[in-house]
Protein 1
Amino acid sequence: MTRALATTTQPAASFPVGDWQFWVVTLVFALAIAWLGWNVLPIRQILRKGRAAPKRTTLTVEGQRPAARAKDH
Amino acid sequence: MTPPEITPRTVVPLTQLRRGDRGVITEARTDSDSRALLGAMGLRPNEPIRLCRHGEPCIVLTGACESCRIGLTRKLANCVFVEVAL
Amino acid sequence: MNDLPAASTSVNNADLGAGRDGQSSRPTHIVLLGIPNTGKTTLFNRLCGLRHKTANFPGTTLESRIGTVRTGSGPLRLDDLPGVYSIELDQHEASVCRQSLEGVSAASGQPLRAPDAVCVVLDATSLPRNLQLLGEALRRRLPTVIAVNMIDLARRRGIVINTVALEKAIGAPVVAVSARTGEGIDRLTRALASPRYATTTPPSDPLGERNWVDRLAQIAEADFALRDDKLTDRLDLVFTHPVLGVLVFASVMTGVFWALFRLATIPMDFIDSMFGALGARASGALPDGLIAHLIVDGVIPGVGGAAVFLPQICLLFFLFSLLEDTGYLARASFVVDRVLRPFGLPGHAFIPLLSSHACALPGIMAARAIPDRRERITTILVAPFMTCSARLPVYVLLTTLLFRDRPALAALAFTGCYALGALAGIFSALIFRRTILRGEGRPMALELPSYKRPSVRGALIQAWDRGMVFLKKAGSVILAISIVLWWLAAYPIAQPSSDSIELRQAAQTIAQTEPTRAQEMISQADASDATRQLQSSFAGMLGRAVEPALAPIGFDWRISIGVLSSFAAREVFVSTMAVALTGSGDIEGEGILARVRDAKRDDGVTPVFTRATAWSLLVFFVLAMQCLPTLVITAREAGGWKWSGLQFVWMTSVAYTASLITITICHAMGVT
C-alpha cells in the first residue's frame, strides 16, 4: 500500500494542485475509473437501455427449424 | 442387480443388456433434442452396438468396426431401446 | 463404384469462378469443422502453432481460435470452429458453426463474410460417424478439403482408409494426416491452398442421407477388422468403478494439486521477487514525485498482482490438457457425476470447480464446456466458493495469529477452510437448482476417446493460450483497480502528526552522533505518517463509512479498509493490514507480525485482532465474494450482470451470516 508522501516536517497541502504531477496522476485515476465504468461495469448497458436494438430472428415452424423438422419427420 | 434373461429378438433398453451383448438400436424414447444429439453421436436407429459396461456409466461401442465408445448415464441408457442380436 | 448422387445444386464451377478442374481461386480464409475428439484442436495447433489468437463469438461464451497457416502461395487465415456432432442441432455450438459458414456471424473483430473454403476433419478410427457432418458441410457448397486425421492410430488398429477412392467419390481433396506425429501435414497445407468443390452432396431426406453415408463409408474403408480392445475395456471398468474409480480420481487430483502448489511456487516466487526488484529499481531510478509513487505503488504491484498467478494457471491447464488427451478425463466425468448430481451439478462441473482452486477466473471460463445452461450458470455462481490461491496469504496471516506456535492446528484450520468453501459451494448449488435454476439437468452422454499418449506440444500451446487470455481479461481489470485504490489511499494528503514531527526533529539532532538510532526514529515517524495517511484518505473514509455494518462481526475501520481494498485482489488485504497497523507494507519484515498482533483499536486497549475477530475474519474470507475481476467474468460467461449481482449478494450474505454465527459462538464460549 501507499507509503507516506510527506517525508519532511513541513505541512503538505491536502491536494497539491500546484504540482503538475498531481494532475497527471489524477488524470490517470480518472481514466482508470472511466475504463472500469465503461468496459467492466454495466454503465454502457444502462445507457443503451432506452434504445431498442435490432434483433436477428430465426425462422421456425411449430417451434422447430425447418431442417430439424425435416429430420424428425 | 443382474439383468433379466433376454431371448433373441427382444427389444429392451440398454440398461438390460449384459456386458458383451450385441444389438441394433431401434429408437431413443427421449426428448427431440437428446434424440438428435444421440443420433449425431452415432446412436441412431439401425445402428449396431455392443455393450461394454453395464450400469453407471453405460458404455457402448458403435460403428461398423465398433471403434467408437460412448458413455451414457443410466437414466439416458434407459431411454435407448435395442433389438438384441442372436 | 462411385454411385453417389451428384451435387444437388445446379451451379457449376465456372459460375462460381472456379478453374476447369473445379478448383476455386486461391482462398484466404478457411474454417475448420469437425465432430468432437477428432483431433481438430491438435491439427489447428500443428498448422498454426503459436500464430493464433482467441476471440469470442458475439453474444456467446463460445471461442474461436483464429490462426495463420503458411502455405506456398501465401498466408491463409484458419478459424477453428467449435466441435459439433451436427451443424443442424438446436445447440449453441451448432448455431455458431452454421452462421459462420453462412457468413452472418464472425468472432469479435473479424469481418462478417462467408469463408472461402471449409476443411472438414474426420476421425480415421471411426470414419462412418463423421460422415453425417461431412455431408452437412458439403451441402453448404463451399470449396472443401477433407483431412482424415489420426491415420497413425487407424493403421495400428488395422483400419485402412482408401483416401484415393474417397477423393474420387467426393471430388474434393482428401488428405490422410496425423496431427500428433505431423504425418501428411505438408500435403494438407498444399491442399488448403487449392480446395475444390465437391461433386456429390447427400440428399436432404433422412433415409437418403443415411444411404449416402453408408455408401461413402463402404468406398472409404477398404478393409477393417473388428477390434476386441480388452485393455481399454479393463481400464474403463477400473476408472468408472464406483469405488476404484473414486480412489483413482482422488489420487490423480491429489497429484494435480500437489504439482500445482509445489511446482508453481517456484516461478510464482520468482515473479514476485522480480516485481519487487522492479519496484525498488523504479523507486531509485525515477525522480521523486507523485508519478514515481503511482508507478512504484500502483502500477507495478497491479501488474505484478496479476502476473504472479500465471504459473499456476498455465500449469493447471497444461496438466488438464495432458489428462484430457490421455482420454482419462471423460471417464472421470462420470465418476464425479455420481457425486455431484445429487447437488444439481453435472460431472462436467468438476474441471471448473477444480480450476477455481487456483483462480476462479479460468475456472468460470472452463464452465463453457457444460452443455446445459442452468447447470452451467449454477457452476459459475458457486465456483468462487472454492478456495483460490489469492486467499492463501490471508489464511496464513490469520492462522498464524490464531495458532502462534501450533503449526499442526494451523494446518488443520487451513484444511478446514478448503472444506468449508467446497461445502458452501455444493450446498449453494443445491439451493440454486431447487429454486431459481430449477429444472432437469441434461443427462450425460459423452464420447469416450481412445486412451493414448498425450501431446506435450498441444498441452503447452493450450497452457500458453489460457494464460494469455487470463492476463488480458483479468490483468487489465486488476491494474485499473490498483490505480484507483492507490489514488484513493493517497489523497487527501494527511498532515504529519505532532509525534512524527518531534521524532524527525530528534532524529535530525542525533543524526551525526547516533546514525542507527536516528534511522530507527525516522522509520517510526514514517510508520506513524503512513498509518495517519491511510486513516485520513478517501479509502480510510470509506472504511469508516462501512465500519458500522461490519462492526457486528468484529471488524473495525482498519479491517474494513482491508476488506474493501481486497476487492482488487484478495492478497492485497495482507499488505493493507500491515500498512494500517504498522505503517509498513512489508508483512515479512522482522517484528511486523508481532506488531500486527499487538496493534490496538481506537480505544487504545482492545486488540484489533482479538481471537474472535480472527476467527470471524477467517470464515468471512473463505466465503465472501471479494474479487471484482471474478464478477466481471461471471457477467460475461453467465450472460448478464444480474448473475454477478446475485453471486455478490448471495456470497456476501452467506459470509456475513457465517461470520456472525462464528463470533457469537466465540463470545459465548468466552473466546476473546
Note: The radius of gyration of chain C is 30 Å.
Protein 2
Amino acid sequence: MTEAAANPVTTVMRALADPTRRAVFERVFRSEEISVAELTRGSGVTQGAISQHLKSLKQAGLVAERAEGRNVYYRAAPQGLEPLVVWMNHYGVFWRERFQNLRSLLKEIDP
Amino acid sequence: MSAAELKAETKDIVIDEVFPHVAETIWKALTSAQLIARWLMPPTGFEATEGKAFTFQTTPGGAWDGVIHCRILEVVPNRRLVYAWKGGDERNTGYGAPLDTVVTWSLTPVEAGTRIRLVHAGFVMPRNDSAYNVMSGGWRKVVRQLDEISGEE
C-alpha cells in the first residue's frame, strides 16, 4: 500500500481542517453541480485559490469533477468520508465476535 | 449553515444483549484476567481496581505496535466497569490511527438474566447536520454501518 493510500483519514481530516476549504466543500455539496466560476463568485477569494481547494478536496476523495467543454463542474463525493469509519467498523466486528465468545464461555462455566 | 458547523463529533459503538446468567457470573467473566483471556484477549496487568493500568497486545498496524493501553476508570461490582482504551500512532490512519476511547460495561438484572450493555465511546468523526442530510448517499452508508455494529439499538 502506498503512503497516500494508507492515510485516507488524515487526508480527509486535513482537507476539512481549513475553514475556507470547508466552506468550498459545503457549497459544492449544497449544489447538485457547481463550476469554479460560480464557486468563486461572492467567495472573497480568487479563482486560483478556489481551484487549489478543489484540488485538495478531490485528492481527499470528497469531490468529483466533470468536464464539459471548457467548464469543469464539481459535485460532492461523500463516500470520501468512509475511511473515518475504519476503526469503528473494526471494533464493531471485534465486539460482536467477543460477545459471542463471552456467551459461549458463560454457557460453559454456568450451564 | 456556516462552515463552523462542520465540526468533529464522537460516535459510539453500542451492543446491548440479554444473557441467561446472573450479574455476578458475568461480572466474574468481565473482571478475572484468566476469564478475560478466554473471551476477549489475554490482558497484561489486569486488576479490577480503579486507576490500575493494563494492556492488550493486538495486531500491529503501520507505525503502531498494536498495544492497547487501558486504565480502569470505574468499578461498581456486578454493575459497572469502565476502562480507557487507547492505542494507535499519529503516523497512521484507518486501522492503527490514534485511538482514545472508553469502554463501559453495564450490567442490569432482568427477568431472563442480565442485560449487558457495552458502549465503546469516543470515535471521532466529522459531522454537520446539513451535511448529514445533504450528503445522504455517503452518510446513509455510514449510518447503515453504524446500525449494523450497534445491534438492536
Note: Residues 8-124 of chain B form a domain with the Alpha-D-Glucose-1,6-Bisphosphate; Chain A, domain 4 fold (CATH 3.30.530.20).
Protein 3
Amino acid sequence: MPIDEHVKSGINGSELLKFRDGSVRLEVDMRCYRLSAVQKVAYKLAEKCTVVLGGVDVTSLPITFLFPPATSEAVALDVIRLFFQDLLDQELREQIAEETRPLRALLLAHAFSKTNLIRRE
Amino acid sequence: MLIKLSARGLRPLSEVSPSSFVGRICEQPEHPSTERATEILLVKEPLAMLPDGFRGYLLHHEMRDAGRRDSYVLAPELTYLAHGDVVRVEPTRRGLTTLYRRTSNSNSFLLTERCDNFCVMCSQPPRPDDDLWRVHEWMKVIPLISPDTTEIVFSGGEPALLGDHLVQLLDTMKRVLPRTALHVLSNGRRFSDAAFARSLAEVHHPDLMIGIPLYSDLAEEHDYVVQANGAYDETVRGILNLKRRGVRVELRFVIHRDTYARLAAFAEFVTRNLLFVDHVALMGLEMTGFAKTNLDALWIDPIEYQPQLVEAAWILHRAGLNVSVYNHQLCVLSSELHQFARKSISDWKNLYFDECAACRLKDDCGGFFASSTVRRSSGIAAIS
Amino acid sequence: MTLDAPFHDRTEYLPAASYRLLPFRFGRFDDHRYLLTNDVGEYVLLSRNDLVAFVEHRLDRGDGAYRALKSRHFLFDERSRVALDLLALKYRTRAEGVASFTGLHIFVVTLRCDHSCHYCQVSRQTEDRLHFDMTPAHADAALELTFRSPSKRIKIEFQGGEPLLNFDLIRHVVERGKEINRTHRRDLRFVIASNLSRLSDEVLSFCRTNGVYLSTSLDGPEDLHEAQRPLRGGHSYRTTTDNIRRAREALGPGFISALMTTTPASLMRVEEIIDEYVRQGFHSIFLRNLSPYGFAARTNLLRRCTIEDWIEFYKRGLARILKINAGGYPLREEFTSILLQKLFSPTGSNYVDLQSPAGIGIGAIVYNYDGSIYASDEGRMLAEMGDASFRLGHLDSDNYEKMMTSESLLSVLDKSMPEGAPMCNDCPFLPYCGADPVFHRVTQGDPVGHKAFSDFCKKQMATLRYVIGLLESDAGVRGTLLQWI
C-alpha cells in the first residue's frame, strides 16, 4: 500500500530516508501523531527493528530505527513504511476508542445488571 | 377440499331470533333434553318432527311445518357441517359462519381485526373498529369445543391489542381445554411492555407458542414491510421479554420481492442475536388481502429465490434452530429444502392443481392456497 | 416498483441520516482489506477507504458497507436503539461461560510407560518402578476436588506414562466417580489417553460397559509412526492400528479417536499423515503444533522447525482435508473446528488452550501421580523442567478454596488476559484468541510475553487469517467448514 499524503507531510527533515550503519534517523511531527500511538507501533514492530525514541517536544520527536545486522536497505525502508502505515491505523484506533469508550461502559453496565437471563432449552 | 367458512346460505322455515347466536352442531336428535340449550340440531335425513329444546335447527332438506324457532334449510355449500362443529347463526343476513370444525387440521380464532401494523402483504387487512364483541363470543365458544382438539390458533389483526382480555382468554383456554396447544399469532409489539409479557407468562399455559413475524436484520427494512416506524424495536423487545419469562416464541418470515434479498442476512442475524427462539418458519406468500392488492410489486416466482432460501434455512439449521418452510410445493422447492417443508395450509383453503394428480410426491406435499390461482410459479410440475 | 396509497415507500422508514459507532477493533487482513471485529465476535471485512469513511461518519445509509456494519452491530442509529439491548445480551452470554469453570480434570495415574517416544512431554519411567503410580487415596481426594467444580460438564481424562499400566486405578476412579455423580447429576465423561499396547479384552469390556472413550496416538504412516514412537519389542504401528480396529469394533466408531504429534519429520509429510488417518477410518484429525515442553525442548527439536514451517504444514494439510471432503469422505480438522466455534458460537469454544481468561485452573486441572496439583497439562510439564510456577498445591495439604483462590493463580489469570495485554487489546483477532501463559513463560520467561516475538501469536494470527479467508472465498468450502462446528 502506498504511503499517502498525510504520512509524507508528517516526516520532517529530508524527503529521503537515509539508511546508515544499520539504522535510520528521522523526526516525526507530533502535531500529527499522538505519542501513545508512536509507542504502540514501536512495540508492535519490535521483532523487525528496535525503535529508540528521543526527547519529545510539541512539534518534533526524533526516532532512531535500529535494524538487526545484515538487514538490507530495501528491507529496512519497507519496515519504515510499515511503521508509518501502522501509525495511521493506530491514530484511527485511538479516535475510535475515544468515541466509543462511554458506550462500551454503558453496554457492560447493562449486560451485567440484574436482569433475567434467557435460557435456551 | 375447499370450504366456505362463511356464507349467506340459510333459508328460514320459521320464526327467527332478532340477533346472532352461537351454538354447537349436534347430529343426535335424542341428545339429553337438559343439555340442548347450546346445541344446534343438524338434520341430514328428514324427520317426522323436530325434537324441542335445541337452540336452532339446520336441515339438509325442505320440511313443512318445522314448528320450531330458528329452523333453517342449509344451502349446499354449508352441508359440510358435522357433529361437534361450532357456528354462529346470523338470522338477519340469513348467514352462517363456522367458528370451529372438529375434524379440521387447523382451527383459527380471529380475536380482533384491529392492528398496529399495516403489512404490505397482510392477508387479513386491519379494520379500526372496536370489536370486543368477538372476544365475548369466543368466551362462549371455548366451552363448546372438544377437549381432544390438538391445537387452536389465536389470530387477528393483533391479538395483543386486547391486553388483559387476551390474558383472560389464555387463562380460559388453560382451564377449559388443558390438553389443547395454543398458537398465538402476534406482531409482538405490545410485549415490549415487560409487565404485559409477564402477566401473559404468568398464566402458565401448558402448551403455548407465540408466532411473531420478523422481516429483516435491519430495522428500516422491517418497518417498511410492516409500514410502521419503531415496529422493529418494539417487536424485538417483545421477543426478548417473552423469552425472559420462558414463553415459547416462533419467528415468522414471509418471503416476497421486498424481503427475499436479505434472507441469508436475516438468518445470520437470528443465529447471532435470537438463538434462543423455539422455531423459525420461512413462509411463502398467501395472495389474499393486501398481498393481492400489491401483487405486482410483491410477486416473485419462488424458483427465483431458492438459492437465498436454501442458504437461510441451512444457516439456521446448522446453528441448531428448528426450521420449517411453509406454503411451498415440493416441485418448486430445491430438494435440499424438502426436509424442512411442512404441510402447512389449512384444509379449508387447500387445493392441488390438475398436474398434481400425476405427481409421485403429492402425498408429502402441502399443495397450494386456494388463492394461488391468482398467479402461478413457472416451476409447478408433477415429479415422476 | 412502488406501492400506491395508503402504503408508503421506503423514504418514510429511513434510518437517521447520521449514525453512531459501537466499540470495535480492526487490523490489516490482506493487501486489500481490513478486518473489523467487535467484543462479541462478529466480523466485517472492509477496504481501507470504507473503514475510514465508516469511522469518519461518511457512510451513506444505503451503502452495502453501512448495512453490513449495522446488521452486525458495529454502528447504530438513533431511530433503532434495540441494537444496544441485543449487544448487551450478547456480552452477557459470552461471559457466562466463565462461571461454570473447570470442565477438564486430568488424572495422571502412572508415569510408567512401555514406549519411548522421542518428543515425550513426560519424563517417563520404565515399567518396573511401582512408586510412579497414583494411589487410591490420592485418586479419591482428586475426585472430591473434581466435583467441587461448578461446571455442568465434567470430563475426566486418564493420562500417563501409559495409563493402562495402572488400569485398576482407572477402574476405581470410574466406578467411584459414577457413584458420586448419582447425587451431582453432571454430564460426566471418561477418556483414556493410551497407546493401546495394553488394550486387553478386559479393558475393552470395561470401556464398553461404562461408556469410556479411548484416545490414542497415530503419528502418520508406518515408517513415521515407528520412527517417532518406538515400542519395546517393536511393531508400534501395527499394535496401534490393530488395536484401533479392535476398539472400534468393540466400542463403536464414536468412542475411539486419535491424535498426532507434529515433529520436524512430520512437517514435510502432512498429506501422507492425513491419508493414513483416512485409511484407518477416522473422521477427525488434529493438526497440532510442536510444543516447547518436555523431552522435545531438551533435545532441541524446536531449533529445527520454525513457526512459519508449521503454518505451511497447516495450510497444506487443510487444503488436503478440504479436497478429501469434496470427494465425499467427511473429515474434520479439530484445530480449525475450534477456531470456527470461536467465530460462530455465542459461547465460543471450551478448548482449554485458547481461553480468555486463560484455561489454567479454570479450564483444566491436573492431578499428578505423586499427589501434586497443576493448573494445566503444560504446567505439569513445566514443573518437570524445573519451573513450578503453575503448581496449585498438593492433594494432601491444600483444600479447594486455597488452591483456586491462590494469588499466584489469580494474578496470572488477570495479567495474561488479552483484553489487558499490549498488542492484544488492539488486535482484531482478540475475540477468537486466548491466553497461553504457560507457553509464554517457557519461551519468554513471563506469562504475558511480548507478542511481537511470540510464536503463539504468529500461529493464531496466521491460522485465523487463513480460515476467515477461506470462509469468505468459496461458498462450497464455507459450507464444508461450517459443518464442522
Note: Chain A is about 45% helix and 20% strand.
Protein 4
Amino acid sequence: MKQYLKNTFDGIFTVLVGMKVTFKHLFTPAVTIQYPDVKVKLPDRVRNRLYVNMDDCIGCDQCSRACPVSCIEIETVKSIPSEDLGITSNGKKKALWVTKFNIDIAKCCYCQLCVFPCPTECIYMTDVYEFAEYERSNFLYKFATLTDEEAVQKKINYEKFQAEKAAAAAKPKPETPAQTENKTE
Amino acid sequence: MYQFLYDLIGNEILAGLLVAVVPLTIILVFALFGIWLERKVSAHMQDRLGPMRTGWHGWLQTVADLMKMLQKEDIIATDADKTLYNIAPVLVFTGSFAAYAVIPFSSKLLGSEVEIGLFYVIAISSLVVAGILMAGWSANNKYSLLGAMRAAAQIISYEIPTALIILSMVMLTGTLSLEKISQMQTSSFWNWNIFGGAVFGLSKFLLIPFMIAGTLIIFTSTLAEVNRVPFDIPEAESELVAGYFTEYCGMKWGMFMLAEYGNMFAVSAIIAILFLGGYQSPIGYLGNSIGAQWLIPFEQGFWFIAKGLALVFVQMWLRWTLPRLRVDQLMTVCWKYLIPFAFINLIIIGIISLI
C-alpha cells in the first residue's frame, strides 16, 4: 500500500518535473537557423568551389599537374611577337594564349593542391558551396576567355608565324637544314 | 441557437443547417490552427523554429498541406474490404463531430439543449471505437489491425475512469445537462467546480482536493481516449507505422487527422465544462460593467474557446514531454491506479455532498 501511494506520487511528480523542463525550452531561443535566408559564417580557410581569375592566368599548367584527380584541363597557344597580352597583377608577363581552361568540378576533391603552385595566385577557392545541378555536364566549368573561333584564329596565327619564321630562316642559309629545324623548335 | 435562428429565418431545414455549420466551422478552423500550433509547440520545445515559410511564422502551412492532401490520389488496397474501408473515416469523424451538438460554446451558441448532454457525449464518442476497429480490420494490414485492437482495448478501458469522474460530477451537480452545469459555476472562478462549486460552506472546502484529483484523473483518461502521447500506442509511429490508419491516404487520412484534433478539443471542452466553469468568465463580464448585454455571449464564447485551447496546449505540452507507455504499463495505469482512485473519489464526493 505504501509502495502504491509512492508510485502514484512519483508518477505525478516526475511528470511535473518533465513538464517544467519542456516549458523552459519553450522559451529558449531556437538553435536552428532559417538556412537559405540565414547562413552560418564559414571558417576563413574553407575549401569550396574553385574559381580562376583568367586576367592573371599565364597558362603555366602547374595547377593541372598538381591535381591528384586530373580535373583541370589546360591547352595553350604561344603568342606571336606582334601581340601584347599584358602583364598579370603581380608583374609577370603573359606569353601564352589560354585556349582551354576546363575544371570538371564533379571530379574535384577540394584538396586545394592546385592553389599553392600557382605563380600568380589566380586559381583559388571561393566560399560558394551551393552549386547543385540537374545535368552532370553542367559541372564542366569553362574558364577560358577566348571564344572557340578566337582560339582557332590564335592557333592559325601562331602556325603562320612559325611558317614565316621557318621560311625566313631557311632563305639565307638553304644549305644547312639542320639549323633551321633547331630554330623552329 | 436553433430556436433563435428558426425565429429569424422561419425555415426548419435552413435553421438546422446553419446550427450545424457553426460548430463544423469551429472544428475545421480549430483543426487547421491546432495542427499548426502542435508543430510550433513541438518545434519550440525542441529549440527549433518549425514551419516558417508559408505566411507569418508559417501559419498557412496547414492550408498548404490541406491543398496537397485534396489533390492526392485515393488509393485503396486490392485486398481491403472496400465498403468498411470507405465508411470508417466518415464514422470516426461523425463520432467526434457529433459530440459538439450538445457542447455549449456560450449561453446563446448551443446546438441542442438536451437534458442528457453528458450521457450523449459518452455514448456518441464510443462511435469512434467502432470506426477505428472498422478502419483497422478493413485495411487488411497487420499494422492496422494491431493498432485498431490496441485502440479498442485502450479506449474502452479508459472510458471507465472517465465515466466514474463524470458520475461523481453528476452526483454533485444533480444534472446531466452541460448547459445547466455551466450555468451553476457563474460569476467568479471561485465558483468553478474545481474549487468545490458555487455553494459556499464547509463542503466546498472539503471538496477542493478531491475535485483537483478528479480533474487530473479525467484529464489523464481523456488523453488516453483521444490516443494522444503518452497513450498513443494505437498509432505508435515507431512500431505500427501509423496504427489503424496506416493504409489510408489523401483526404480519408485527413478525416482521421481532423477527427483527432476535433476529439482533442471536444474532451478539453468537456473538462472545461465540468470543472473549469464552462463558458463562464473567471473575472466577470465586460458587457455587464459597460451595460452592453449583447456583448456577453461573445465574451462567453471567447472564454470557452480560451479554456479549451489552454487544455489543448497542456495536451500538446505533455506530448512533447513524456515518452510513450508500453501496453502493460498503459493497462496498469488505468486499472490499478486511475480506476481505484476514481472510485474513492466518487465515494468521498458522494459522502461530502450529503452534508
Note: Chain A touches chain B through 19 residues (CB under 8 Å).
